[in-house]
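Bump. Still looking for Leucine carboxyl methyltransferase 1 structure tokens.
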Amino acid sequence: MFRRNDVDSVGSDEAVIATNDDASSCKRCAVALGYWKDRYINYFVKATDRKAPEINRGYFARTVTIKILVDKFIEVTNGNCQIVNIGAGFDTLYWRLVEEGKSVKGFVEFDFPGVTSRKCLYIQRTKQLLQAVSDEDYDVKLNRNNLHGHTYKLTGVDLRNLTDVEAKVKESDLQPDLPTLFLAECVLVYMPLQKSAQLLRWIADRFKSALFINYEMVNLGDRFGEVMLNNLRTRGCDLAGADACQTTETQRKRFLENGWAGADSCDMVGIWSRLPPEEVARVSQIELLDEQELLRQLFAHYAFTTAWTDHRWSEVTL
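Sorry for the wait, here they are.
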């Protein structure tokens, strides 16, 4: 029998899972308008309403920044690396890299089984997706929540359960001695601080040449941040890790206090100023903004934080 807190946890988990659908819908809208190219997102999201211009620009900045950093990591390692996408949702990064001929030794995605089961189904039903994870010398292994291809692995796991995470990492054939890039987009904030700290420390202890890229909220203490928090809470999303998202400094400290050799954090106002100017000029013409202040406020409340266990990855920046 469920206890009251068990029921609350299940409801909160379902609300967090629903944020994947929201993010995927936003990405599909931005892609349809021409903010960036992604011919795979439509396989996961069939239709969507048009989003506000500042939302589209926000997702553009988020997506292009991750792609730039991932490309740099692959280039520096000559592809002799692996990528772990934590809370991957319906992200299409793996297929976009394959399309560009950028290969890595391993690409692993973790998320709730409720998300990975749907993604497994979409991949299984879509020739273009399945072909990219297949290899003539390696049979794809597929069950309800997991898919294991030659280099691509999709695995259902609760990231708060470190014992399960350890087991899934082992099953995914990740090599601790290889340079490893970890990605997380609005994931840690939904975990209790103790649980996210345990996860980050375990990664730092196990992967000696790791780079972590974390995209998440910051500056939650002002009025704009309070509205963001309240909107999420009304949807049932309990931001259990919000205390680590107060400032870019608290974002840095969460890594430094959990075994990482170094960390840096920059809000999206700063990130936007570092993006290729020709790309910024191009997307600024897609939709005109009547009110620039709203975009600035939005950018001021999200940040990219990078952390490393190997100091050479401190140079993988915008």
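Residues 131 and 262 are 39 Å apart (CA to CA).

Edit: fixed formatting.
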